[in-house]
Amino acid sequence: MTYAWWQKLKAMFGQDHFGFTDSWHRHRYVVVDLELTGLNPKEHEIVSMAWVVIENQRICPRQSAHMLHSGVSQLAQSPIYHGITASRLISEGDSMAAILSAFDAACEDSILVFHNALLDERFLRCAYKQQGQKFRYLTLDTLKIEQRRLARQGTEVALDALSLSACRRRYQLPVYREHNALSDALATAELFLAQVNHMSRQQRLPLSALITAG
Question: In CATH, which of 3.30.420.10, 3.90.1150.180, 3.30.160.390, 3.20.20.140 is domain 22-213?
Fold first, then answer.
C-alpha cells in the first residue's frame, strides 16, 4: 500500500480510514527482518523471520519474536552469512503456516517497517501466496526514508551508503551483529526511531509524512 493508494481511497470514500493524518506515534509498528537462502523469491527461501514491536515511541522487547523455518529445502551456502544450520531448523523450526499465523497475530492493527522492503516484502508476499493468503499490510522502509533524506540534502549516495550499518552510523547508533534476523530487526527499529526523531524536530509528524518518505 502506498501514499498514492491512500489518496485514491480518500477520493473514493471522502475520509481517512487508516489514520494517515494522525501523528505517527499514535500507530503501532512491527519491524521485520528475514534471513534468506538467496535473493530471488522464486528460487530461494525464508530461513528465519524476526519482528520487534514499537508502541508509544518505544521498543517493546517482550513482544519480539524470532522463528526458524523448518521447511527449508536447501540452505546451500547461506549459513556462511546467517549461521543457521539444517539441524537447528529441524529441532527448533516451525512450518511457514505457523510462522505466518504468529506473525499475523503480532501485526494486528500495525504498520510494518523494513530495511530494504523491496527484498523482504517480496519474499513475504510469496510466502503468503503459497499459503493461499494475501499480504495485506501497509509498509515503511528505513532505506527509502534515508535515501530521500540524503537526496534532499544534495548528498551523493554511494552504493554501500544505504546498508543498515551505514545508515545507523549516521545517527551514531551502536554496532550490532549482522545477519541475525532478531538483531537486525532491533537495529532497524532503533534506526526508524532515530529517523522519525530527526524528521519531526519536536514537531507533530503525521503518518502520511513517513509514507511519502519511505
Answer: 3.30.420.10
